[in-house]
Design goal:
heterodimer; A: about 425 residues; mainly alpha; 15 helices; B: alpha+beta; Cytochrome-c3 Hydrogenase, chain B; globular
Chain lengths: ~425, ~375
Amino acid sequence: MLSFLATDHWYDLRDLANLYRVVLEGLDHIFPTGLVYVLTALLGFIAFFVVFVLPSQLYVGVYGERRLIGRMQARQGPNRVGPLGLLQPVADAIKLLQKEALTPRSADRLIMWAAPVLFVAPAILIFAVIPFGPRMVFADIPVSLMYFLAISSLPVIASFMAGWSSNNKYSLFGAMRIVAMSISYEIPLVLGLLAVSVLSGTMSLQGMVYWQQDIPTWMILIQPIAFAVYFIGVSAELNRTPTDIAEAESEIVAGYLTEYSGMRWGLFYGMDIAYALGASAFAATIFFGGWSLFGLEQWVPPWLIFILKTYLFYFVFIWTRGTLPRLRIDQLMSFAWKFLLPIALINLLVVAVERLIWTSNDLPDAIVWAFGAVNIVLMVGIVFIWAKVFKYDPKKRPTKPRLVNEPGGYRPVDLEQGGPSL
Amino acid sequence: MSEIVKTEPFVMNIGPQHPSTHGVFRVKVTVDGEQITDAEMVIGYLHRSMEKLAEERTYTQNIPFTDRTDYLSSMSNNLGYCLAVEKLGGLSVPARGQAIRVIMAELQRLASHCMGAGAFANDTGAWQTPVMWFNRERERILDIFEMTSGARLTCNYMRIGGVAFELRSGFEEAVRNLLPRLQQTIADGQELLAENEIFIARARDVAVVSPETAIGASLTGPMLRGSGVAWDIRKADPYSGYEKYDFQIPIGYKGDAYDRFTVRLEEMRQSIKIVEQALDDLPGGPHSTEVPLAFRPPAGEAYARIESPRGELGYYLISDGGPSPFRFHIRPPSLINLSVLKEMTVGASVADAIIALGSVDIVVGEIDR
């Protein structure tokens, strides 16, 4: 499978695993046997965090987001610190480090201290299973999908701890909301990803990339419903608009972060971005072919392809944040249970049948395109039927008020006589 | 289970320091989970004793006070106060002065509704984008105010008997350049918010005020018109020559937050129509009548009311023949519109209470004076 990688030279930037191997061999001469594996794994992981996650947080998550949203909002965004404002995230981080991390007198000090720490750890662990290239994955475990889902639901506990320990009513609201929403959205999210796993027959993220490379296709074309469910579910998990009810600024000030200040708040903020990056990387792996790009990965470094896909997906998060209003919690809940869960179940059923047809009849791989067509038709059909069931007709809703010429009393709405439907 | 786990309501303060209270305003809400069971409004954090202070100053000196009541629509406040003094003193305003006053009042309505619509969008959680779009246009209107009166927010432009200065050269061109941009921004707001599925889900059927409640609580302005009651003082009791202009009253369907928002957008469109008409036939002649600085109206009382961006803004003045008013009273539309907040919020969720408060479009400077 790795045949397209031409060389094993350390300077072949298409696969940074070469470089890594050279370092490992060099260190093996210095250190006693065995220790080097632990040490290089640790070093590699830290280096990877410093090389990819941290700059992405600063320059895509903070700078890029502020800059792009600035453009969307008819303003400049950060442009004072350094050329084009590029040093702004660094300045922000230094400012946060200098600020005092206050703890309210009535707060539960231990839990309040532990919450940001607990919030950070999973954000780093998430990236361990993400494949950046054919050999560039830290832990290529066979059930990395399960690992990812398990790790990504940990921060909810940290958020709840933060909200509970602050002893602030706004924080408590945020904590209650995040737990309720996370439980609701986890279920359709897992069911949606289960369908992907059933179709590709693997739970390894690397395996899914190979699956998409072999067909060749992208999972989003074959599994549009799973992608829709994943995108909605993950933006709810991540507290991004339109589902940012846990830190809804206009309602509960800052939700579970209300009492946090200084770098403790900064850890929450930065790791929120890291989770969003993790979710983007995950989506790029599962739905957009990961590091593969229809043969182009032989010439362009696969990790570059992958990172660009991740950033493109992250851009969608920024875009929705700059555009959409926020939903109310009961609307979000009913959306998860009444719409996302049934649609994910229907999708799972259809995909299971497709998989059965595919494997039991020993059909060629190209059959997935037919499955994809069926699934797209299914998605359009479901949306159409739901619109029919709920009598959804945006054209008939009045979006402009009535106009009258003369003042007077109350003007009733004539709903019977062909008036607008509300 | 229910014996072990029990829930109880708790009291939560929304405000006076809160992102969505539009100033220093406080609501003490009792919540049971997400549901509000009781709401108590606490006002007075911005009280500056304006009505009493005004009794110590001459009629002309009081005009800057009116700027600072409803600080988002100083021109309208100037106009209402000057109309009251003119009614008290039996003065008339030249035609040009009246037309300039109409242009300014309508531009002020546009500016104020820009702020109201944008801030309401912020309350629904549209993260700053609509408010920035609307504020961009509001800034341009404020530029025109600065060009005309020298101040952006507290204009202090109108005087008893007319306006303070003649319009600057280039004023008409500046306004005519501005109006198409404003139309575009209103259309953008319509597309981005009023036709947005999430926005409709958030604002439709939320904070409903029935027409009976609206009339009973003597609501005015977009709050009343949103409930479907056609009432506009510019039509019902025209002042400053409003009877000459052709415009319509927008009224809502259900009296919910969404109706109030769309009524505001439509009022902006109507204001643009009025400004265009006023510019088209701007009469010549003097902009003001000569009124002595220490103006002493005869003893008596007068009440003048205008349609401010928030509703019926009334000024009630009693004169004892001296150079300063014996009694100076303001009927603030924000305060009276706010009186239905409890009806709107009890039984709703916290998120809806914010929407309800945002849809009233309060200015705390006017509530507390």
